[in-house]
Amino acid sequence: MDGGARVNGIARWALAALVALGSPAIAFAATTPAAAPALVFLDNDFSGPGDSNVQSLVPLLHDDAVTIVGLGVVTGDAWRNEEAQSLLRVLEIAGRPDIPVYLGAEMPLLRTPTEMHRWVDAYGKQTWLGAFTDAAPGQPYHPSAPEFIPPMAEGTPKLAASHEDAVAALIRLVRANPGKITIVAAGPLTDIALAVRIAPDLPALAKAIVIEGGNVDDDVATATAGLDAMDFNFFFDPEAAHIVLTSPWPRIVVLSDASRSVIFTKPTVAQIATSPTPLAHYLTTYAHTGEPMWDEITTAVAADPTLITKEAVVVMDVDTMPGMHYGRAQIWSDAFAPKSGAQHVHLVLGIDGARFLRAFTAAARK
Question: Is the pTM higher than 0.85?
Fold first, then answer.
């Protein structure tokens, strides 16, 4: 799931028109992506059981072309420690205790629960505030108790996270494998931003970074379709998204709205349920049907870039100025981009959804 100049309504409609017309003002890629990464470091807010966050593992676990060198856990949809327990339990169930888990940031760089709720009061309701969501009867949220781990329906893991933190591990691994590691950030970008600040050489040493976030043109969907189309990952830690997007990575891929283009449906769950494996049983038992497959699409594209059917090369940043657009992604063509250090990103506009879903279902059955 990103201050700079603000994209106004006219700019948003202009972008839509340029995309529709295939204007030369936006550089469309010819869908000849780089080869699939051999080494992946996945950083995510691994809340569970059975939602998009922990299911982001599925496209990677049994892909012979991919080695997961580490999993970083960052606070986002839930608190870090709770997420780590969910992740460790899934690794046990999937028979992959060999993959190291590293605890990352417990809080965003600047945002706090109090500040976020003040923002909501000033600028409008958001249906999802992740770990900062107010406690309510019958709900699992505990915004003032980050160390609390609720009872786990899927069972408490016996595995433990590494004593090394996610930021140190990411820096160590990338430096030890220059040009070989693809970083996949499917949650808030706090850990990646901290790593960049500690080790400014990190971006140039990575192979690429693939980011779930960067939604654009959300206002119309929110106002007319009753959808809360807010980009949670950028909204939860705007400063981190800004740091990452303005760092000199060799390649930046941003999934944007394409990450919500495929829905996890009951028929898909039924196909997975025909498998007797422990992972398939877990996925079908705790399935969150009716939700977009945000994180699963992100990891699948990182592993197999040929899933991308259309993309635009644009300049991207995030608004970090106080106000109603705080945390919103902004994009420009080269002709209109500011000279603030923002980088080119490959903004994914379409994926082969049918092929993705077939591959995900097959991997979930293993």
Answer: yes
